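Q: Predict the assembly, please.
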Amino acid sequence: MNENIDAQEKKDLPSNFIRDIIDEHNLSGRFGAKVHTRFPPEPNGYLHIGHAKSICLNFGLAKDYNGATNLRFDDTNPVTEDVEYVDSIREDVKWLGFDWEDREFYASDYFDRMYELAEILIEKGLAYIDSLTPEEIRHYRGWPTSPGKESPYRNRSVEENLDLFRRMKTGEFNEGDHILRAKIDMSSPNMNMRDPAVYRIKKSSHHRTKDKWCIYPMYDYAHCLSDSFEGITHSICTLEFENHRPLYDWFLDKLELYHPQQIEFARLNLSYTVMSKRKLLFLVKEKYVDGWDDPRMPTISGLRRRGYTPSSIRDFAEKVGVARRDNVIDVAVLEHSIRNDLNKHASRYMAVINPIKLTIINYPENDIEYLEAVNNPEDSAMGMRKVPFSRHLFIERDDFREDPPKKFHRLFPGSEVRLRYAYIIICTGFKKNDISGEIDEIYCEYYPDTKSGGLGASRKVKGTIHWVSASHAGNVEARLYDRLFNHPDPLESDDDAGGFLQHINPDSLKIVSNCKVEPELLNAKPGDRFQFERVGYFCADTKLSTSGNPVFNRTVTLKDTWAKIENQTNNQ
RNA sequence: UGUCCUGUGGUGUAAUUGGCAACACGUCUGACUCUGGAUCAGAAGUCUCCAGGUUCGAGUCCUGGCAGGACAACCA
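A: Predicted assembly structure:
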């Protein structure tokens, strides 16, 4: 292999502190130049965009270093965990484009080995059964700024500890009666080292081991062991586990087991978004959204239903980078990723979201023309299609103004615009409803020689608008989604009472029926993605669409320079 | 009055390990355009948290501050 090429490829890889650490390890030979990562979700909720960052990181690193990544369910708390979540997590990781092959593991697979090692810990005098109440234990633990004190049960004999632990296992005691604790240091400045819990009694059925166990290992104990059993080299987790690393190392050292390296990075935060599982669960449970896969949710399943592509999310994950400082990513970065992807790949159609009738008074009543339209100007391989045109059309209500503001390039009395793929027209009048004051219909004349591709077509007009032939139009429902929160930091005024709810955007979903679309769009299959020209990217909803009756979700709007201009002048 | 971690344009992330602070998103101009999209060209914006020190030279090393975050579940 050519070294220059290797060096060149290396240069193109993103640079971050984790890669630096791995490079050092590879140089020193600590893991024999091996990289083996894992993605370890707890199956107690749906995955969100923050998890996507972690997934891309773990799988991406392994790929770049010719290693592998395990999917491991960290299922040590049967009370909150469920197979529903296991299934959704599997689906989401797969959908994102990652393959864990046959390496699907569960912490619960290791319960037997973990138990045996716990007995060893006891035998070594490094763990004991505490019989204090939970409240007492909390009290004994002390504060971050002041040391804790030792439990009166701390010095039970190995025999007594072993006996008690075995009886815990057989179900002789009630929850909370006893607990296995590591014997470390009650005066440690690191709270995690003040005799942390190792095993607790929980008499609930586990989604995999059912009723085999009534004692379950705690995270700190289970996680390092699982990593060790699987031969993980780099155990990558988020910053809040930083203070747990000494404990991670302690268990492995005392048990003399293979020792992976834990590395922490800063979790993803997104503006205008909440990311905590607890809050997302709350939104679902209290019906602020339609479920975990509501298109406004930052969950992977929500983004998928919204119309995001796997590659746009991977691209996003790469763009935000990896570091150790707290961060808030502008949601515009995410939106940029999906626009960028869909611009290249989504076929274009004309769809009128808020229709108003337009009649071309000098166009013959019964004529129909089929006009050529480009499916994607970014990709000529996507071909052309025919769009029916006639005397009666629908156009976007907002593309007409009786009294246009400055710089308005669209339709108003006397103005000329291009009908996309069709003719240049001039607005000759309109009909207003006397009672409502609403405009009912717009009248125009067309210039026959200005047809797209025709002789007079090269004439320039200021604006081009989209349209749909009235008699050919399909009638569909569109769901215009917007950000769920209208404050960049919804948690700013959060409290236990759910203060973040005051920032919920009341306009995060607008359901619009009777949108007029090109007839072909009626055949859209659930999940199909499109650009509605001049409007935005849409996809056919996977839950609400029925055959011949698609419901279109707005994934994201097109960049709208005019809206920006108009807002600015309005605000002046 | 603790321990650990982190401070680089508005927001993120880099900086060949001590050598002209770069890239992306966003913002603003202009060009082009049968999408007010895309594309192209350009601009503004960082005295690298502060104060000292070492050095010919410091974002990077040293000392001292300051600010922010994490930690007090039998959750993960």
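The domain at 7-265 of chain A is CATH 3.40.50.620 (Rossmann fold). The radius of gyration of chain A is 31 Å.
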